[in-house]
Amino acid sequence: MLLLDLVRLSREGSLRIEGQIPPDDPLWEGTGIRLKEPLRVDLRANETQGGEIVVRGKVFGALAQECRRCLDPVDIPLREEVTLVFAPPESVEGNEDGEIRALPEGDKEVDLAEPIREEIVLSAPAFVLCEPDCKGLCPYCGTDLNETTCECVVDEPDPRWDTLRALKKE
Ligand SMILES: [Zn+2]
Ligand SMILES: [Zn+2]
Question: pTM for the complete prediction?
Answer without folding.
Answer: 0.75
